[in-house]
Design brief:
- The complex is a heterodimer of chains A (503) and B (64).
- Chain A is 38% helix and 15% strand.
- Chain A is α+β, with helices and mostly antiparallel strands and 503 residues long.
- In chain A, α5 packs across α7, α5 packs across α8 and α9 runs antiparallel to α10.
- Chain A starts with 6 loop residues before the first strand and ends with a helix.
- With 64 residues, chain B is an all-alpha fold.
- The chains are: A alpha+beta (503), B mainly alpha (64).
- At the A-B interface, β2, β10, α6, β14 and β15 of A face α2 and α3 of B.
Chain lengths: 503, 64
């Protein structure tokens, strides 16, 4: 049976250290994050002050495989515990992963909340760039890009996470959500000039997805090579008897708020429908990777995708079916599991977007990243008489994702916004109120100096006694403001809080 | 699934993108075109000055 779709996004950002002959992306990422943390500490005030809290890796197991046994030769991801790793008072984690700065949003209660915290993350990265530039020698600066590829075959991810019922067989997730991941590109692809798997600019001048070039398997544990459409990492960060965390590695990082909203919102509903066995269609493709790439390289969005059951179907037709089932599912189950405010809005925008794709896709230039980017780059190409493959077009592609407000092209193409500035600002330092992230963030803000480490499902306090005290948070729906705000507010010390919580 | 879709072109062995397939507008086309012209005028000021160098030096380590 479907459960509440608590969800979040973790984004690895591209990073460029300018003005130095010997740039090191790991060092630059550390400088970026540490500069931000130092600035926060200097600015004082408990609500803003970031405690020097480390990440607790005790219960991390990224090598666990949802299929039970990892195939021989599969490579569990490495954990780099020595790198910069901070927990923020908004409940987010901000750290260096591989050679990129990465920010994981706190656990969010619905797609609106995810968009807000994803935008708050951008603001945190903007401030980090300013803080780093103030510390770096004259002539040097660090610039951050919210994209997924350098155009030279190197990719980095924007992963989504969704809470899923453990009782749902993993094989059904694979069979039923894969068609959504392959076809949702048409409205949540971020667009890319060219191809990184050997096709010429004539063959692939522009494609819908940043990431499609980098996927080679249907199912697997890897995230850095031979990437699979369905990632099997089994690391729920919650009660493993009750929950899975579906770790989605195939999405593009979106600059459009509406695109992020639809990416997360439609996927949350599709997963809830799978839990309730509501999809009622077999959209397994004969070649999932072939279908993924067909959709990405077909700007007309009409490619026929061959089905295992015979015949073929287009990406739009898959999406129309999923939307129709979603309307039916919400008629029976309401919107509680995906957000009573977000849910109807997801359906409305999903429907409008699919209608526009059918009728006049250029009208989506204010909501769909790849269409906004294509319009800009193709317009520039025509005006200057350039051939596809010209470096200036690749430059426009990269600069679309530049997070400096004065340089970002995405901020100039007229993308519709759905978050308020006030909510985005609030989200840089305050946690969501409707998940356990509230407990993490509120405790850090008030009792940060008593917390020695934190991770997704626990906080460890040092209240001066003989031993450290760990507070487990195995239920992502508990620890909300409704549950714990008053006890946190009325406790004078961390020890008093823990005593009253019975920890 | 609708019959009409099944007689569409065969799945791409190799990509079939062409500029002709790209998103086109009609009714609001003129307005969009005017907006695009304004946008292209505006971005000239903020574009990276040496596109070739910028693109060549934008090299990232692979991540997840």
């Amino acid at each position: 049976m479907a459960i509440r779709k608590i969800c979040g996004i973790e984004t690895e950002y591209g990073i460029v250290h300018r003005g130095t002959d010997d740039p090191n992306p790991i060092t630059a990422s550390s400088v970026l994050i540490n500069s931000y943390l130092s600035d926060l500490n200097r600015s004082g005030g408990s609500a803003l002050g970031v405690p020097q809290v480390g990440w607790d890796f005790e219960f991390e197991s990224p090598g666990s495989d949802a299929r039970g046994v990892a195939p021989i030769g599969s490579m569990p991801p490495e954990i780099e515990t020595h790198l910069t790793n901070a927990v923020l008072t908004n409940g987010a984690r901000y750290y260096v992963d591989h050679a990129h700065p990465e920010l994981s949003t706190p656990e969010c209660g619905d797609a609106f909340s995810v968009v807000t915290f994803d935008r708050s993350a951008e603001v945190i990265l903007e401030r980090s760039m300013l803080a780093a530039d103030a510390l770096l020698p004259d002539g040097q600066s660090i610039v951050v890009y919210k994209n997924n590829s350098d155009g030279k075959g190197n990719s980095y991810g924007c992963h989504e996470n969704y809470l899923v019922d453990r009782a749902l067989p993993f094989g059904r997730i694979v069979a039923e959500v894969t068609p959504h991941f392959i076809t949702r590109q048409i409205f949540c692809g971020a667009g890319k000039v060219g191809s990184e798997i050997g096709f010429s600019a004539e063959e692939v001048p522009f494609q819908i997805s940043q990431r499609a070039d980098f996927f080679e398997e249907e199912v697997g544990l890897e995230t850095t090579l031979k990437r699979p459409i369905i990632n099997t990492r089994d690391e729920p960060h919650a009660d493993p008897q009750k929950y899975r965390r579906l770790h989605v590695i195939i999405g593009d990082a979106n600059m459009s708020e509406v695109a992020t909203f639809l990416k997360v919102g439609t996927t949350a509903i599709v997963l809830a429908m799978i839990e309730d066995d509501w999809i009622k269609a077999d959209f397994r493709f004969t070649s999932p990777i072939g279908a993924l790439r067909s959709v990405s390289t077909d700007l007309s969005m009409s490619a026929a995708l061959p089905l295992l059951s015979g015949g073929s179907i287009t990406a739009l037709e898959v999406q129309v079916h999923l939307l129709e089932r979603a309307i039916d599912w919400t008629n029976h189950h309401g919107f509680d599991l995906v957000g009573t405010q977000a849910g109807p809005e997801i359906l409305r925008r999903w429907g409008e977007t699919l209608l526009a794709i059918e009728a006049e896709s250029a009208s989506l230039a204010s909501t769909v990243d790849w269409i906004a980017k294509y319009r800009l780059i193709d317009g520039y190409r025509e005006r200057h008489g350039l051939a596809w493959g010209d470096a200036r077009l690749h430059a426009l592609d990269l600069q679309y994702h530049d997070l400096r407000p004065e340089k970002s092209l995405a901020r100039r193409v007229g993308l519709e916004t759905i978050c308020t500035k006030a909510d985005i600002e609030k989200g840089t330092s305050n946690p969501p109120e409707d998940t356990r992230a509230y407990f993490r963030g509120a405790c850090l803000a008030k009792f940060g100096s008593d917390i020695v480490s934190a991770n997704w499902d626990s906080l460890v306090f040092d209240t001066g006694g003989d031993s450290l005290r760990r507070v487990a948070m195995m239920e992502p729906s508990r620890g909300t403001a409704a549950h714990v705000a008053s006890v946190i507010e009325s406790s004078q010390t961390a020890a008093e809080l823990l005593d009253r919580l019975g920890s | 699934m609708p019959e009409r879709e099944q007689i569409r072109r065969t799945p791409a062995e190799r990509p079939e993108t062409s500029v002709d397939d790209a998103p086109q507008g009609s009714e609001t086309g003129e307005k969009l075109k005017a907006e695009l012209d304004d946008l292209l005028d505006e971005i000239d000021e903020v574009l990276e000055t040496n596109a070739e160098d910028f693109v060549r030096s934008f090299v990232q380590k692979g991540g997840q």
